[in-house]
Amino acid sequence: MAESTVLNLILWLPVLGMVALALAPKGTDRAVRGFTFGVMVLQLALTAWLYQRYDSSVAGLQFETRIPWIADWGVYYHVGLDGLNVLLVALTAFLGPLVVAGAFTAIQKSVKLFYAMVFLIQFAMLGTFLAQDLFLFYVFWEAMLIPMFIMIGIWGGERRIYATLKFVLYTAFGSILMLAAVIYLVWSQAEATGAVSFSFADLGSHPLSFGAQSWMLAAFALSFAIKVPMVPLHTWLPDAHVEAPTAGSVILAGVLLKMGTYGFMKLGFPLFPDATRAVMPWLWTLSVVSIVYGACLALVQTDIKKVIAYSSISHLGYVMLGLVSLDLIGIQGAIVQMVSHGLVAGGLFTMVGMIYERCHSREIAAYGGLAKILPVYSVFFVILTLASIGLPTTSGFTGEFMALLGAFNAAWPQYQAGQALPLVMAVLAVTGVVLGALYMLWLAQRMLFGEVKAPHQPVGDLVAREKAILVALVVAIFALGLFPQGPLAKTELAARDYQQRVLSSRLPEAAP
Q1: What is the DSSP letter of 366?
Q2: Which of 2, 12, 26, 422 has its CA 20 to 30 A from that of 440?
Q3: Could you tell me the residue ranges of all domains in the chain?
């Protein structure tokens, strides 16, 4: 009971913080920042305690709460932790105070409203991960749009209105189709069982026809693929990143994109195993196209934010590759890669914001020789660059290596059986590692070394607050890279369950 209460407190703390901000008398911006940071640190502390209490030897949900909400519709407030969401909840709570601290100097207008939106999006993201009821999941999924729309629209760049409308239209289109699929799924299950339920466990208990699975997988997959994003549904992402404030970019890359990959892992593939197995060749192909195409696009960008944005498409392609491999190592690698990308991309976007505050430019050509004038900044930038390309001992290496190993484990038996496509895709996926090293090292070389081009006026190196943010990220990156056994133990049983549910397909052929 104590643990389930703590889990609910973790979820609802941002709402309490937002209400407190709304009811508080007008105060200084510094007080607002300090209060928001304190709430986020408390949430992180509670999450760390609950993470330690999570029992990796127990399958299924832990710290569960199930309360009737709209009982006549079979809707419950149903939340809990399992091996698929425990690391993502920890990631969300970890990035929360770093996002708040990173915005201390960057956000100068409507400070109270900004931090209220940070609270709201933190609540929506955690709710999406924790929800075990499809109705509740959809509510949280849609609620994420509101604060991100406001954050980009008010505190974004010159083309913020275009970027935020594009983001909302893309996401809303996929969500509408998913809503139709949710309604049909619940109705079909009610017809078969005589009981209306939105519970994930109940919805997966009754097999559907292959035709019904195909249509519903298409609707769910479109919504999730837009959020990842997978090629060719990726075009909203660079605009959103470029125009978003730094905090918005960190939230977007660090957590929000993981909603898509988590949706595939938690709902899309396990609920519709027959349809999933039937389209495995397409899923493999789209995953590898995202890896290679995203890396190629990153190579030709002139805006620092766009380089990192397109690199996100490539890195999340490895997550999808690990998930569709249906190999235990690959699935666990996908989960680790989600967390790693959140840390590394969040750190890189934070560093872009730091240099932008000093020099007011995101163009790569405006920089050069930063290592001579900002040595501490340059050291952290190099560390995050090496983590992004997957240097051994970093989290990026652990996630990508496991995802690729899982892909080869799955592809080799298929190759021996006469199906060459999986092995070809696995080999092509390795080229993404080479391309990743190329665009990230080239970015670091142009910004940090050579002739000093910027700034045009003297600027100082990182202050204590900025150093603390980056130290926290670097420690987490190396901790996950050097000691992945603990996190992997917490995900193993859930990863096995995901694997078995998708492999329970009645189709005779193996994936892909």
Answers
A1: G
A2: 422
A3: 279-512
Average pLDDT of the residues in 59-78: 91
| Phi, psi at 385, each rounded to 5° | -65, -45
pTM over 0.90: yes
Euclidean distance between CA atoms 268 and 260, whole angstroms: 10
Angle at 130 between CA 124 and CA 131, to 5 degrees: 85
**From residue 77, how far is each of 92, 198, 273 by CA, in Å?**
21, 10, 26
What mean pLDDT value characterizes the chain?
A: 90
Instruction: Look up residue 70 and give its DSSP letter.
Output: E
The amino acid at residue 207 is P
| Residue 281: both structure tokens together | 């060749």
Task: Give CA separation, 379 vs 75, 361, 454, in Å.
Answer: 51, 20, 17
180-194, 377-391, 475-489: segment of lowest average pLDDT:
180-194
Percent of the chain with pLDDT over 90: 64
pLDDT at residue 466, as a whole number: 94
3-state secondary structure of 123: helix
The residue-averaged pLDDT of 399-409 equals 94
Would you place residue 509 in the very low, low, confident or very high pLDDT band (cuts 50, 70, 90)? Answer: very low
Q: State how beta strands 62-70 and 75-81 pair.
A: antiparallel
Evaluate whether 380 touches 474 at the Cβ level (below 8 Å).
yes
Q: What are the start-end ranges of the H helices in 360-420?
A: 370-373, 375-388, 395-416
3-class secondary structure, 232: coil
Q: Phi and psi of 79, rounded to 5°?
A: -130, 155
- Compute the CA torsion angle 428, 324, 485, 256 (nearest 10 deg): 100
Token digits of residue 459: 């600027």
**Residue 339 or residue 162, greater confidence:** 339
